[in-house]
Design brief:
Mean pLDDT of chain A: 88
Structural class of chain A: alpha+beta
Radius of gyration of chain A: 29 Å
Number of helices of chain A: 12
Shape of chain A: flat
Number of strands of chain A: 12
Strand order of the largest sheet of chain A: 1-2-3-11-4
Oligomer: homotetramer
Largest sheet of chain A: 5 strands, antiparallel
Low-confidence stretches of chain A: 69-78
Order of helices and strands of chain A: EEHHHEHEEEEEEEHHEHHHEHHH
């Protein structure tokens, strides 16, 4: 059912420690987007556009010369589609915000991800979803677990983000506790494993992973115990962690998928959902390469200047031989910009230009 | 791209005088609905369900016996899917309102229809649309026209409906007018064509069609004239009739398509849009036959009793050997039902039962 | 901002052990639905309908006589709105599936609920949501906990439901374990608390609640510990239970809210989300009483007969003096109905009628 | 029901020749957006943020000093909300694409517009609509008509746009025709009215408006005639022009309204729908002034540089003392940019900078 060049995505693309993305089906592609868009103009799918040339007609989009009658030797030579014409058309539509043709391509994915990722994902409402049901079936026996070097620290500037990795013990932290059959001793400033009479020093990351493992095992044990008591599945699960894996079929049109990717590939998205977005991006790049290129150019890697930032750049460029010094009017005006505007201007024009 | 058994719908199905419906693409089918629904249960696509049988296992759904090892002669005989199991599963989901699996099948149609039909159609918001643009291209040169015997009369009871066909001249109606090069003379109570010296009597329907033809020709002429003046297409079109044909690509999932069909195949829908709904229904019946059967059973041909109507039927059946006569308590109670409830009860139990 | 008669709902309505629903704002009401619907007809809000009466005019809807000029003593007496006319109009629209006017009333709620409830809730896509963020803020320190007599058992027939309450120990269950500082000893068939030298016998429900309490305390402790280590909030939370409470603002139009209530007040919905739906229903009944009545009549308490069930009832009623006995044709036909159809027919006509 | 400062919008704002926009109701405002967003952080509505100051505390956002206890003279002085804090918060959310809080404000409008405008409008699917029904009621007796100086010409570059006004007769255009009781004579190159024996020269615009008037009168006459014949309203209307006025109630949340305004206030939108968008913009600016400011800054008047355009600007600024001349490498690189990118770069940096 999948076209050959996408067949490889029918195998699971691994994401995170136990998750995956798998391509189930597609409807349409770059060509279908163009076909639907052409209904506006009464034309069919793109072909070479020889109109307007003079002697020796040449396609206006790709520059390929029109085959001469003598060569083609027939009334109405079939024209191969013009890739460059297609590229421009798709680039134009995406750039100008003609979104509806991109809704004409549809994709269906099978995904396994932690519940906390699913909760961010489901906020994208314009999609179809069938999720694994913890009421109907036993919870999937997989939990998202972090390796010792994966405990990211809290970002102070971006209050909802993370940065770096935890490597220090909290000041004066003390603990002496059995975790999964191993004694952990943290007398303050250092941590140790005590097992079978030997003592190994451990890092904070190792300790956090050990404790996670013990907690997850306990939560699963309680879950299984409840089922053994005959507790209904819909209640037995209420203490399962939000890191437990779930699965769903997810179907969405390309326009809304691009919106999803724009938000979830962004550096402000939680890295766990970004991992899924990046996996999906690989599929989209293979499925609709022209759209993907336009998306990278006009969304993912574009720079937006607010009205204030744009006005500053425009005005300042008029007198560009006068470098902006620390005391001038321009400097004052720059300082009065919102912080976010200053950052964009600096990133674009360079601190040097604004020295 | 279309599966073989749907390939015939790639040709235009004619609708109304100049419209059509054409199947462009599908994603999924009955099987895909089941596949997605099964993600809830961790099972794959349906197969025979031999569980629970005793000696000589028999599929619980379809009754087919399990092939014996001696016959099958291999470790793990591939099981043909169980149609009866699939039918029950889809029937169950549609009956119980488990709608989301039906969103996993998607269809794309190419449609040509009058603008006034498109305006009713577009109210169904959960769909993707690319429409022919009268700003970008010249208006399609086709208008919805009625034959003399198609001028339906106004329904008095259903204020938004029509009934019967116009066959009478309005009382005392008088007109003497040139329509498209032919003189029409209505002296009151009868109508005549005067052409080339001869006089033919005409019916009201013929007159209405003639006058429609003349008005449509005039509107098109004005449109073309404006274009000749260099008036922009976006303005030139403003006096084109709402019966002018337009086209679009329309993509929708099966759940929302069924909702569309439920409303637009209904007897209260305008017959012009019903014609399109009926054409689409033929495609759906071929595309997802199990779903279509369930839809006919549980929606299209179902009967809904309001709480009041159901309570009346329940109570009345308890003493069914007492026919409800014109003076009894039951009669009073029946009369106190809302008009719509009385109609449903009568239709279901029969006037005889309630004599 | 809230109208007076709704002001009481600005206080939290308690739901479950620690959740609530709180009314933040409404736009429109029954009257606004009618007002918008009347745009179709060019009429304003409903008033008495005296049209069609003869001498001594009487409102066709409510029967109230028109005030005489002598009494009213002015040119154009203001008419009080006609409640009965409004009731009929709203009943008609809801019955006939004219849904769009019900989208003209909007409600905004503030809700606190367990994450597993939020996950079912969010599947209703046509709504606006702002949720508490566990990336931005510390997780709310409240978890859904069950009292000893609330551990519902698994329903065998309805695989996603629950029934009864757990009162038995699993056969041969053995455990000896410290839960939150108390020793629990289950030697098989009975359970005991050992604390401060004394031993109390406990029920399975008490044991399950104790163990839940201990697990939840452990999960919270791990969460707080991670924060103490400087782990980012977005990662620290991954082992918090799906029973942890979250909050959101939820805004939805009345049409879609009724759809939500129809599904979530249903007996197949998980009791935890039904508790929220029931709380919201109280608000809706006070906010839009005419709509609520129509909804109860035509949706909540309506009975739907499939085409097959309706055909059976119709045919059978034609020969109702012949009771359906165990061997007759009718009996065979009844038996051939789908199980769900048989249940509806029996519920409606009574086992007695079909004896 | 409307807050006082919006009460003036309850009166119709005239749009086009016979249309209007009228504010029916609002739910929420800038404050409600903030309130809902704060549910993410557990904080209430914004107030002065004195945190982090030293002696003589000063609000970090607006700079207002904290009132001293001696002055305030009470335990817990109520803080006026901090407008500057609110402004920054809303600016931040809109800039960073945190769209959901903007869905917490809702608006309901009553609009009268030509059908061809309604057809563009209805493409915005995330809204609630109740439209005047031509099946239920007689078509509104108003048609969109153009004055002689309003016949915009076809734009050649933007194939879906218009430019300038028609002032010339088509070459060799000839016509001699009675329009609404007046003879119009166009012998080629000029036009004349012949009425009551006198002859007035007329412009192409006057002619086009005259002919429009005659066609619209004819269409209305045919419509009324059909109704006189008893033709159903749903059929009688099929030749009414798409310029006929219709009405609807339209309800939408602020996020989606801003999306609508971003597209429909754009210079590529048809001027007729832009007129409505501009009227609505006035209401929004009064209703949610902080959001409106942010929208103007970050959407309406923002400049987006594609990845290519941004890369060019960045690289080129590194060697800004070298003006880009006609033969240099930079020139070549500039020429290789897509046309749309070149336009943005030129508009931003100035042709002078790139001389």
């Amino acid at each position: 059912m999948l076209p050959d060049h996408l067949a490889r995505f029918a195998d699971k693309i691994p994401v995170l420690d136990k998750g995956f993305v798998r391509l189930v089906d597609v409807m349409g592609d770059d060509g279908a987007i163009i076909e639907a868009a052409r209904v506006s103009t009464g034309k069919g799918r793109t072909a070479h556009d020889y109109a307007g040339g003079t002697m020796g007609l040449v396609c206006k989009a790709c520059g390929m010369p029109k085959p001469m009658r003598a060569i083609a030797d027939r009334e109405d030579p079939p024209e191969s589609p013009c890739i460059e014409g297609d590229r421009r058309f798709i680039d134009y539509m995406l750039r100008e915000g003609h979104h509806s043709p991109f809704e004409m391509a549809e994709i269906k994915l099978h995904v396994r991800m932690p519940i906390f990722v699913a909760r961010q994902w489901i906020r994208h409402r314009t999609a179809n979803v069938n999720e694994y049901s913890g009421r109907y079936s036993k919870m999937i026996d997989e939990v998202f677990a972090l390796a010792p070097d994966e405990w990211r620290g809290q970002d102070i500037v971006n209050k909802q983000g993370s940065t770096g990795v935890v490597t220090e013990w909290p000041k004066g932290y003390r603990l002496d506790r059995n975790l999964g059959g191993v004694d952990v001793d943290i007398p303050g400033g250092r941590g140790f494993h005590v097992s079978n009479g030997s003592t190994d020093e451990i890092t904070p990351g190792t300790y956090l992973s050990k404790r996670q493992e013990a907690l997850q095992a306990e939560a699963r044990e309680v879950y299984e115990e409840r089922l053994a008591f005959g507790v209904s599945r819909e209640l037995a699960r209420v203490d399962m962690p939000v890191g437990n894996y779930t699965e769903w079929y997810w179907k969405i049109d390309l326009r809304n998928l691009l919106h999803f990717l724009g938000l979830r590939m962004d550096q402000h998205a939680q890295p766990e959902i970004r991992a899924y977005a990046n996996a999906i991006a690989r599929i989209v790049a293979a499925w609709c390469p022209l759209t993907w290129r336009a998306f990278e150019k006009h969304r993912l890697n574009a720079t937006t200047l607010s009205a204030d930032a744009a006005a500053f750049v425009r005005d300042w460029m008029q007198m560009r031989d006068m470098p902006m010094n620390a005391t001038g009017t321009e400097r004052l005006r720059f300082d009065r910009l919102d912080k976010a505007d200053r950052a964009v201007v600096l990133e674009l024009l360079g601190a040097e230009a604004l020295r």
